[in-house]
Amino acid sequence: MKTAKPSAAPHRHRRRFGRSQDQQVEDSYNQPAKLREPTLCPDCGAVFRKGRWHWAEPPAPAHAALCPACHRIKDNFPAGVVTLSGDFVAAHKAEIVNLARNVGDQEKAEHPLHRIMAIEEPAGGLVINTTDIHLPRRIGEALHNAYRGELDFHYDEAGYFIRVNWKRGA
């Protein structure tokens, strides 16, 4: 009985569109020095413990400091912008906003710094501002998976910013 030989060619992963992992760009809103632990964000209640922000019970004696997401929200300085346009957006605005909010809620539950800052409604579309660069991509992919349309991502090569554009006609 013959057995098939494994392929001699190494398995190669195709790089997905977007910035590669070795091109890390630092977020200027992250604290330059490590915070004392535990630290509590007075605005959202996130707790900084073991080197990162978590959703947890607030510790009794805790230092107070704004988390990077709340800092971005106060400054109105998004790290990501999702721009939605086309006739489909106007006709299905409530469904699209619900989908974006669901994706945002799922992401926020795991990652306190990944949040939707605001959803604006300019004429003929929607603009969703976020506190990080991962959530816009997930929102764009969720819209594309649910409704198809045209989707593109544009990372700022010099800074911590992403612009996601999604468009669909009727």
Give a description of the structure.
This protein is an alpha+beta fold and 170 residues long. It has two domains: 39-66, no CATH class; 74-167, Alpha-Beta Plaits, CATH 3.30.70. It is 26% helix and 23% strand. It contains four helices and nine strands; from the N terminus they run ββββαβααββαββ. The strands form two sheets. Strands 6-7-5-9-8 form a five-stranded mixed β-sheet. α3 packs across α4. The N and C termini lie far apart (58 Å). Residues 1-17 have low confidence and may be disordered.
pLDDT below 50 for ≥5 consecutive residues: which ranges?
A: 1-17
Mean pLDDT value: 87
End-to-end distance, in Å? 58 Å
Order of helices and strands: EEEEHEHHEEHEE
Q: Please give the number of β-strands.
A: 9
Proportion of residues in helical segments: 25-40%
Radius of gyration: 20 Å
CATH topology of the largest domain: Alpha-Beta Plaits
What is the count of DSSP helices, taking H or I runs of 4+ residues?
4
Largest sheet: 5 strands, mixed
From the spread of the alpha carbons, the general shape counts as elongated
What would CATH call the architecture of the largest domain? 2-Layer Sandwich
The proportion of strand residues reads 15-25%
In total, how many domains does the architecture comprise?
2
In the CATH scheme, the class of the largest domain would be Alpha Beta
- Please list the strands of the largest sheet in the order they lie side by side: 6-7-5-9-8
Find the structural class using helix and strand composition.
Answer: alpha+beta
